[in-house]
Design goal:
Strands 4-3-2-1-5 form a five-stranded antiparallel β-sheet. By secondary structure, the chain is an alpha+beta fold. β1 and β2 form a beta hairpin. Helices cover about 75% and strands about 5% of the residues.
Length: about 375
């Protein structure tokens, strides 16, 4: 019996793989199902709802545009447009209540539903500016966040190092977000300029609306410039903290770590001042008398706050004299400690026993540098 089983086993073994393995060039259904990634429930949900909204929008726009040319009255076209708008409103409300992964409360869902109904009523009433403002408040933060994530992924793939890589990263990420907001503002400006007379009722109101929209673009440009400058200064400070091959390199890195934070603060104030003056000029405000008045007011403040002016000027001269740097141990009167950071008017000293002293530059006087 054992001999018969031994003879039968080799005869059955070649047939076993052929019964299991498929023919060459033909993939099994199980391997096909594993190789093709099916969309998730959330992806199917959003794809279907977005397709329905786009279908209602395109179908309604096409039908309403063609109906007057084929003999239908304007009232009938408006009714069709209202029905398409109701369909999009119903889909949007369904998205609010049934979207996957939503952990919001019923009260929040109810408020968002009322918000969507208010937007639909604004569209029915012909308040297109209010409608677009409401849509921007609802959708623009999500769109900006998504564009920023895509730009960040694209920038990380570039893998550029050095100052050029830092600039490209900031330009790609912040530039993509700024372009998204700028496009939204441009469309809103187009809508509002068409209806500026109806919304404002006067030429002054139209100038104010245009100035407000232009101020958003100015703020975006100022933010982009500030982010570029801040990233480059942070990169240079990081390089300065790693330089330590010789005494000259240590001295240079210490001086950079001392001066760059002050330069960053001054640059922030300068960019903010230029942005504010540009916005006021766009709103129709005469900035020349404003600058002159600010100069006189500044002189008056200078006389009234001589201590503050003394602190700032003393700090400038301490930096020019290279009296101390970040990381050095100094003593001035009853104050002594390691220099941690600077501001425009004071220096922070960490005592060797732990406490921190914030000393105005005007009170330092003669300095004894223990690290040189």
């Amino acid at each position: 019996r054992r001999r018969r089983q031994a003879r039968a086993a080799p005869a059955r073994s070649p047939a076993a793989p052929s019964a299991v393995s498929p023919k060459p060039g033909i993939s099994s259904p199980s391997s096909t199902r594993k190789g093709v990634s099916r969309p998730s429930t959330a992806q199917r949900f959003w794809l279907r709802r977005v397709s329905l909204i786009a279908g209602f929008l395109l179908f309604g726009w096409a039908v309403v545009s063609l109906m007057p040319s084929i003999g239908f009255s304007v009232d009938v076209a408006r009714v069709v447009a209202l029905l398409c708008g109701l369909g999009m409103l119903a889909i949007a409300i369904e998205i609010v209540w049934r979207r996957p992964g939503s952990a919001a409360s019923a009260a929040r869902h109810s408020l968002l539903t009322l918000y969507l109904i208010a937007l639909w009523l604004a569209w029915v009433a012909g308040l297109l500016g209010v409608l677009w403002l409401g849509l921007y408040a609802l959708l623009l933060p999500v769109a900006v966040r998504g564009v920023g994530n895509v730009a960040q992924a694209f920038a990380s793939r570039a893998q550029r190092s050095g100052a050029l890589g830092i600039m490209l990263n900031v330009l790609i990420v912040r530039g993509a977000r700024a372009a998204m907001i700028g496009a939204a503002v441009a469309w809103l400006a187009y809508v509002w300029r068409i209806r500026a007379a109806a919304l404002a009722g006067s030429e002054t109101g139209a100038i104010v609306i245009s100035g407000l929209l232009n101020s958003i673009i100015i703020l975006l440009v100022a933010d982009l410039l500030w982010q570029l400058a801040k990233a480059l200064i942070a990169y240079r400070m990081e390089l300065a903290s790693k330089d330590g091959s010789s005494a000259d390199d240590l001295a240079r890195s210490g001086r950079l770590r001392t001066l760059l934070p002050i330069f960053r603060n001054v640059l922030a104030v300068f960019i903010a001042a230029v942005a504010v003056l540009t916005i006021l000029s766009g709103l129709g405000v005469q900035i020349a008398p404003l600058i002159a008045g600010a100069g006189i007011f500044g002189v008056a403040i200078g006389f009234g706050s001589q201590t503050l002016v003394k602190d700032v000027l003393s700090g400038v001269f301490y930096m020019l004299d290279d009296a101390f740097r970040v990381g050095e141990y100094i003593q001035s009167g009853s104050y002594k400690g390691t220099v941690e950071s600077f501001s425009l008017r004071s220096v922070r000293l960490r005592h060797h026993r732990g406490p921190i002293f914030t000393v105005p530059f005007g009170q330092l006087g003669a300095i004894q540098n223990m690290s040189r």
